[in-house]
Structure formats: C-alpha cells, structure tokens
Design goal:
single chain; alpha+beta; seven-stranded mixed beta sheet; 4 helices; 7 strands
C-alpha cells in the first residue's frame, strides 16, 4: 500500500469511490470539490495495486483543521488504512502548526467513532439533526498537545 498526496489525475477515481461510499444525505463530494481540494487542502489517497483504495481529506484553510472525510472502499477495509491516514495527516498538521483537528461524524457510525476514539479524539458536542436525513452527529476533537504520534 502506498499513501500519497492526491493528484489531479486521481479526481475521477476519487469521485467514483465517493459515489460508491456515500449517500446524498451524507454530503458526498462532487468531482469539482475533489479538484479544488487536491490543490487547496490535505487530500491523501491509499493506492493498492494501482487502484485507489481510499482517501482522507482535511481542510486547512481555516483557524482549526477539520477532518472532512475518510472513505475506504469496502474491498480494502480491515487493513488499518483509516488509522494510517489519521497518523499521516496528523503529522502533517502538526508540522503546519495546527494544535487540534475537528470532525463531525454520524452518531450511528459506530465503526468510525471507534476509529476516532482509538486515535485519541474526544466527543465535545452532539449536533442535533446535522445530516439531511435528520441523523445527529458528534463533534469530535483531537488535541495534538495531548497526543504523541
């Protein structure tokens, strides 16, 4: 597996993966959004045998970094890709001077919540009816001063 920064040539594959993984009520990214984020934020891909197995997107054009999305193809789950993504992005965020990373996650996404908690994230707030289908979300935070990578 290769973890690397996404490139413009990855946009079509990223968009196809996004459509496969996320329903409209979960705010999937458009092709144009991926093009924008390749240039302006931290967007990494995991490549296995020449195919994009997943991605992570962290928004950095703000005071606090925000983990916008992690997507891993079902074929490649269980290989610690999410954990490796979080470690890689966290190292880069620390080097850029960020002291924390925020994210929102559906309260019914137990797998993601477990991953985030294991990485050191803490729930700081419940966001009522955050998603288009009415599902609540948790606002979670990872403080880098509290975490040794």
């Amino acid at each position: 597996m290769i973890l690397r920064k996404a490139q413009k040539s990855d946009v079509s594959s990223l968009y196809a993966l996004e459509r496969k993984l996320f329903l409209p009520q979960n705010y999937p990214l458009s092709r144009g959004s991926f093009s924008y984020h390749v240039k302006n934020n931290l967007l990494y891909v995991a490549e296995i045998d020449g195919k994009i197995a997943g991605y992570i997107l962290a928004l950095i054009k703000r005071k606090n970094a925000k983990l916008y999305s992690i997507g891993v193809d079902n074929l490649y789950r269980g290989r610690q890709i999410g954990k490796k993504f979080l470690e890689t992005v966290s190292c880069e965020l620390i080097s850029l001077g960020f002291s924390r990373l925020l994210l929102e996650v559906r309260i019914d996404n137990e797998t993601a919540i477990a991953l985030y908690k294991k990485a050191g994230f803490k729930i700081i707030k419940k966001l009522d009816s955050f998603y288009l289908d009415g599902c609540d979300a948790y606002l979670m935070e990872l403080k880098y001063a509290d975490k040794t990578l």
